[in-house]
Design goal:
Elements lengths: L1 H13 L4 H29 L2 H19 L25 E3 L2 E3 L1
Antiparallel strand pairs: 1-2
Helix pairs in contact: 2-3
C-alpha cells in the first residue's frame, strides 16, 4: 500500500509531458503573457497608474504559472514510443548512407 502511494506521488510530482504538450505549454504561456502585458500597459497608461500595470502583469504571470506548470493530462496525450534497448549487442543494424555501422 505504501508503495502504491509513493508511486502515485512520484507520478504526480514528476510531471511528464510529451513534445506536443511542450509546444502547447509554450503557446499558452506566450499568449497569456502577451495579452496580459498589453492589457496591463494599456490600462495602466490610460489610468496613469503604475501599480495597476504591475498588479495586472503579476496576475497574468500567476495565471500563466497555474496554466503551464502543473502536468495536466492534456500535456501528455501523445507520448513517445521508445525503441527497446538492445542489451549491448554490437552492430545493431543501423544504416547510414547504405552502410551498416558496427
Amino acid at each position: 500500500m505504501a508503495d502504491q502511494l509513493l508511486q502515485q506521488a512520484q507520478d504526480l510530482f514528476e510531471g511528464q509531458i510529451d513534445f506536443e504538450g511542450q509546444k502547447l505549454t509554450e503557446l499558452f504561456s506566450t499568449t497569456i503573457l502577451a495579452i496580459t502585458g498589453f492589457l496591463a500597459f494599456g490600462l495602466g497608461f490610460a489610468q496613469g497608474n503604475i501599480w495597476m500595470t504591475l498588479w495586472i502583469g503579476l496576475g497574468g504571470t500567476a495565471l500563466a504559472f497555474l496554466v503551464v506548470v502543473p502536468p495536466y493530462p492534456i500535456y501528455n496525450e501523445n507520448p513517445e514510443k521508445w525503441l527497446r534497448a538492445n542489451s549491448g549487442i554490437s552492430g545493431s543494424g543501423i544504416e547510414v548512407d547504405g552502410k551498416k555501422i558496427n
